[in-house]
Amino acid sequence: KAGVTQTPRYLIKTRGQQVTLSCSPISGHRSVSWYQQTPGQGLQFLFEYFSETQRNKGNFPGRFSGRQFSNSRSEMNVSTLELGDSALYLCASSADRGEQYFGPGTRLTVT
Amino acid sequence: QKEVEQDPGPLSVPEGAIVSLNCTYSNSAFQYFMWYRQYSRKGPELLMYTYSSGNKEDGRFTAQVDKSSKYISLFIRDSQPSDSATYLCAMIRRSGGYQKVTFGIGTKLQVIP
Fold first, then answer.
1. Which of A22, A89, B53, B87 fits a 20 to 30 Å CA distance from A101?
2. Are A64 and A82 a contacting pair, CB within 8 Å?
């Protein structure tokens, strides 16, 4: 099976702009989770989608949003970018047992 | 107090050494335990998945869970320079029809040739 794919892999944006990241899960996986990873904070949970519904949400401001489509592909959007949003954004899809399989990530740099 | 505690290291060992990586947790509701390996500028890769106390072996890797002590470990035998990476523990608890995954901050391992 193909793994989790994320696009784009790298992104440079300016403060105040918005960005949309995309994730395609492993075929057959219905759950997609998003994480922000920074050196000091580690992996921080953003949200989880299951069958097009947000099932769980972390402690991030409303500027961070996401959605899931009927084919399980997911997007996350960050509006009004801040310098502190610079991070590696990881998408993970889950099998029935709950273990998560990660994509390669999108490295976002905000200048 | 964090739900999952993991020493960030770095941990440096000579090639061929046995490596021991550990995490402790405070919430007894965690039921499933995982270890991930993450190379620099890559996504985490699932190494081990366990759900019961005891040991699980896969090649040079052994995952150990002690639910009574709320402690999990990953042992790497005959460590190789290619094992140099950050290792993250992760734990799952299920409640109300959904699950929550909590990660440790990761331990950076360097295996010196």
1. B53
2. no
Instruction: Report the distance separating Cα A25 and Cα A17, nearest Å.
Output: 27
Whole-angstrom distance, CA of residue A34 vs CA of residue A54: 11
Q: Peptide bond before A8: cis, by omega within 30 degrees of 0?
A: yes
Question: Which DSSP letter does residue B42 get?
Answer: S
User: What's the pLDDT tens digit per position in B24-80?
Assistant: 999 999 999 999 999 998 999 999 999 888 999 999 999 999 999 999 999 999 999
Residue of B nearest to A38 (CA): B105
**Does the beta-carbon distance from A98 to B46 stay under 8 Å?**
no
Which H/E stretch holds residue A95? none
CA quadruple A33, A31, A102, A66: dihedral sign:
negative
Give the pLDDT band of residue B103 (cuts 50, 70, 90).
very high
Q: Do residues A34 and A46 make contact, with C-beta atoms less than 8 angstroms apart? A: yes
